[in-house]
Amino acid sequence: MNISSPFWHPALSKGFILDWDGVLADTQLDFSPIRARYFNGERLPLVEAAGRLKASEREALERDLYDLEMEGARKATPVRGSHELLEWLVSSGIPWAVVSRNCRDSIFEAADRCGIELPGTVLSRDEGPLKPDPRALWAAAGSIKVDPGNCVMIGDFIYDLYGAIRAGMRAVLVERTEPGWERWADISFGRLEDMVSSLRDPEPLVTREYRELVGEKGRTWLDKAWGIEVSVPEESPEVFLVAMEAARLGIGRFGISGHSRISLEQWEEAPFLPISAVDSPMAECMSRTLRERYPQVSVSWSDYPRSLPEDPSLVERAIRSWLK
Fold first, then answer.
1. How far apart are CA 96 and CA 15, in angstroms?
2. At what angle do helices 55-74 and 104-114 cross, to 10 degrees?
3. How far apart are CA 142 and CA 137, in angstroms?
């Protein structure tokens, strides 16, 4: 694969975390009767909302959820493309895990019905914590011995995407067309089969954090801006705003001297920083802050010849001049 940063493809991932229902098995679960029975039809996460109920009601809700999931599992069919996806993972030597909000018994029952051999790591509702809690995905990544930053989450629900972002993973939405959700996915495939075809013949994809930039300025801008190395204005009160603007515009490599520490003035101008950041090493904090939104950027102890301006409003002008 001739794919390099800032472009990406799920085939580059070293570990796959897969949702179960709707991604590998189709159980046609309909939770609306349970929502009507316990929550007046309100659409909310049932497991978490159970805490609102009295103990007896909570136990009844748990039984109803279990019975519904087991009924669906007994009728489960494999999602088209699921066997082919697992064959591709095995042939590629990529470890994978299942992370689901369903109960464990229903997953194993559905797997048996669908002829799917489950991996060694299956994290269900019974193990907890649940998606979108990132700890669920971190546990899966740890179990397959892959750094979360090298994992991709494949799911069909918004919790899969939220969980992946919070865990520092890439996210793929499959078997669902939801424009409001797709903005949180690095790539969306209407069918799992389409993702499998893409894995077999991968092409460079624009990740979600650069989608707006490419839509505004084109892929060529991103490709060229990514190769520019810049030093940040370490004494500027707005140094974090400057660096964030540069990252938004596609800059991928930032240099900071090893001795710089964050001042109160810099903390004051960057409302997203906690007060504990004051007097901490700038390079470490800058790397962590930028990579939460732009996971592919790098921050090193370097003094690059090109320096970003001290004013965030002048950053685009500077980058434009370097691209000429």
1. 6
2. 10
3. 9
Place of tokens 């596609």: 250
Residues 156, 172: contact at Cβ < 8 Å? Answer: no
Distance CA 177, CA 241 (A): 35
Residue 231, classed as helix, strand or coil, is: strand
* Distance between CA atoms of residues 322 and 65, nearest Å: 58
Task: Give the predicted TM-score (pTM) of the model.
Answer: 0.93
Q: What does the pLDDT look like over 198-222, one tens digit per residue?
A: 999 999 999 999 999 999 999 999 9
The closest alpha carbon to 99, from 156, 172, 25, 20, belongs to: 20
**How many Cβ atoms from other residues are within 10 Å of residue 63's Cβ?**
10
Token reading at 254: 């930032």
Q: Band the pLDDT of 174: cuts 50, 70, 90.
A: very high
Q: How far apart are CA 324 and CA 220, in angstroms?
A: 12
Report all structural domains of the chain as residue ranges with CATH numbers, in order of start: 7-28+75-206 (3.40.50.1000), 213-323 (3.40.50.720)
